[in-house]
Amino acid sequence: MRFVDEVSIFVKAGDGGRGCVSFRREKYVPKGGPDGGDGGKGGDVIIKGDKNQISLLDFKYRRVFKAEKGSNGSGNNKKGRDGKDCIIRVPLGTLIYEEKNGLVLLKEILNEEDSFVVAKGGRGGRGNAHFVSPVNQAPEKFEYGEKGEEKRLRLILKLMADVGLVGLPNVGKSTLISKITRATPKIAEYPFTTLSPNLGVVNIDDDYFVIADIPGIIKGASSGKGLGLKFLRHIERTSSLIWVIDGSLDNPKTQYEILKEELSLYDKSLLQKKRLIVLNKEDLIPEEKKANYEKLFKEMGEKVILTSALYGTGLDRLIEEIKNLDEKRNK
Ligand SMILES: Nc1nc2c(ncn2[C@@H]2O[C@H](COP(=O)(O)OP(=O)(O)OP(=O)(O)O)[C@@H](O)[C@H]2O)c(=O)[nH]1
Ligand SMILES: [Mg+2]
């Protein structure tokens, strides 16, 4: 599953219907009073939160959203029918911006109940029945409906993952997510393989967790080195983080320190999140070092597990630990 996190769309609310010019027809009355009804209101374009959606992928295929026009008014004071609203469903965590000399934030959709009228339908025009006056008993006047609003929008999904994977490049983050979810990210033996976030879903019992794999972070990322820290916004809201460390290198603690430093430079609260240290590439760690490494992290007050994403060892335990990390379950 490729994760699309930013799309531009065009929305157009319905125009209001035209007011009607009409006169009552009655027996023996050649021209009765005016009875032209008002036009109906144009439909609104409404954006709603939907917890079952996890990406903006659908918007790759459909980018124009129009609500229905209001119907025109008719004789006998009949008001035109209101146009139907156009409802756009987006994942929770979607920011709605208007593209207008830059990006202007209109709304953030965080909850399932969130609903936002992003483009208002036009008011219906008035029919001639409204324009009777003492001097004009038979007005021919009517109004056109108002135009519906139209806007160019940018939707940006701040990922609502439950758990984020962070780590230096090439430590095996994408391999991990590919083994515990059905995500199929690119994996390769060089740094910066992952260039945009991947999402995966882990099914546990009858619940699920969304895991985010983001591009690797290097020392100096906070000052723009490597791919920088812009992807960290995807994990700002996760309830917990998995710090993935390459256990095959000599310096697991150095990697840990770099991560800590860069995360805290981006946003200190990232260090407050619950975390789990995963020492990956266990298959390449000499037996005699394993216990030492575990001790090292435990002494720093960390919870640590060893895995080999490549060979699938330690992954059952990892899933068990993810379950424990999750706040939903600890309530
Ligand atoms: N021996 C061994 N190799 C692994 C393990 N996990 C991943 N690898 C290898 O390490 C390399 C990097 O793996 P990725 O999953 O692409 O690493 P990443 O952390 O996503 O890297 P970036 O996207 O560049 O940040 C690949 O060649 C993997 O096959 C492991 O447990 N053991
Ligand atoms: Mg990767």
Describe this structure in words.
By secondary structure, the protein is α/β, with parallel strands linked by helices. The protein folds into two domains: 6-157, GTP1/OBG domain (Spo0b-associated Gtp-binding Protein, Chain: A, Distorted Sandwich); 163-330, Rossmann fold (3-Layer(aba) Sandwich). It is built from five helices and 14 strands. The protein has helices at 173-180, 252-266, 287-299, 315-325, 327-330, and strands at residues 6-12, 45-49, 64-66, 86-90, 94-99, 103-109, 115-119, 150-157, 163-167, 198-204, 207-213, 240-246, 274-280, 304-306. The strands form three sheets. It has a six-stranded mixed β-sheet, with helices on both faces. Strands 3-1-8-5-6 form a five-stranded mixed β-sheet, with no helix packed on it. It has a three-stranded mixed β-sheet with strand order 4-2-7, with no helix packed on it. Helix 3 (287-299) links the parallel strand 13 and strand 14 (304-306). It is rod-shaped. Residues 173-174, 185, 193-194 line the site of magnesium ion (MG).
User: What is the CATH superfamily label of the largest domain?
Assistant: P-loop containing nucleotide triphosphate hydrolases
CATH architecture of the largest domain: 3-Layer(aba) Sandwich
- Derived from helix and strand composition plus strand pairing, the structural class reads alpha/beta
* Total DSSP E strands: 14
CATH topology of the largest domain: Rossmann fold
Rough outline:
rod-shaped
Biggest sheet: strand arrangement: 10-11-9-12-13-14
Average pLDDT, rounded to a whole number, is 90
Q: For the CA atoms, what is the radius of gyration?
A: 29 Å
Share in helix: 10-25%
Main sheet attributes: strand count, strand direction, barrel closure: 6 strands, mixed
- Rounded to the nearest angstrom, the distance between the terminal CA atoms is 31 Å
Count of runs of 4 or more consecutive helical residues: 5
CATH class of the largest domain equals Alpha Beta
Strand composition percent: 15-25%
- What is the helix/strand order? EEEEEEEEEHEEEHEHEHH
Which molecules are bound in this entry? guanosine-5'-triphosphate, magnesium ion
Overall number of structural domains:
2
Which regions have little confidence, pLDDT < 50, spanning 5+ residues?
none
